[in-house]
Amino acid sequence: MAAAATPHGQITVVSADPGAVTTFLRPRHVATLPGVGPATAKNLAQFGILTIGQLADTPPATLARLLGAAPARELNARARGIDDRPVQRAALVRSTTASHRFPHDELEAREHHRALLALVEELGLRLRGNREVCRSLALTVRYADHSTTTRSRRLPEATAHSAALARTAQDLYAGLGLQRARVTAVSLRADGLTPADHAHHQLLLDPGDDKQRRIEAVADAARRKFGPHAIRPATLAEPPAPACGSARRRAV
Asked: Mean of the per-residue pLDDT values for the chain?
C-alpha cells in the first residue's frame, strides 16, 4: 500500500510502531485496502464506509451482516493494521543485457550482423564466467526515428554456448525482415538465467559440436588471462592498420 501511495521518485516510510501504521491507514480510501474489490467498496460506500478508518471503527457484527462473517473479520483486522498472511517472495526472473550503439545510422545488414555477433560473444563469455545459462533471448533494434522493435525466442535448451546463442540471435534478426533500415543501436538480452549446474545438455552425435565447445573453453581461458578481446571471431577482427611505408606510398 505504501508503494502504491508513493509518488514517482519519492520514498514513503511507515514505522512498525502501531500508532504510525494507524495514522497511515485511517485516512485512505477503503478501496486501497488489500481484499477490498470494486464490488465490496461499492457495498461499503452505500453505508457510508468510505475510509479505512471508518471500516476499522465499524462494529464487527455490522460488518458481518454487510460482507459475511469471514470477510468481515479479515478486513476489520487489516483496517487496524493486522495482517497474518506470510510474506511471499516471488522468484526473481534474472536477465543480463549487452548493447551496441552505432556511430551513425547504419543501413548495412553486414554491420548489423557483426554487432549482433559481438553481443553474442559478450553475453556468452559473461554467462560462462558466472557459470550460468539462459533460457531465452530477446533482440531489440532501435531506429533513427527513435522507434524500437523487440523480438524474443525461447532456446531449444538452456545454454551459454556462443554458437547456439548466435543461431537464435540471427534467426531473431532475420525475422524482422529489415530492408535498408536506418538502425542506431541493437541490444541482446539473455533471460531466465539459472546456474549451469542445474541445466542439462543434449548430447549430439556430432563431433563438430563437441569440438566447438572445447575450442570455446580454451578461448575463454585465454580471455580470462589476457583480456576479453584476446581471441575473437574472424568476422569481428578489425582490419590491420596500414604500415608506415604503405601510408607514405599512398601519400606520394
From this structure: 80
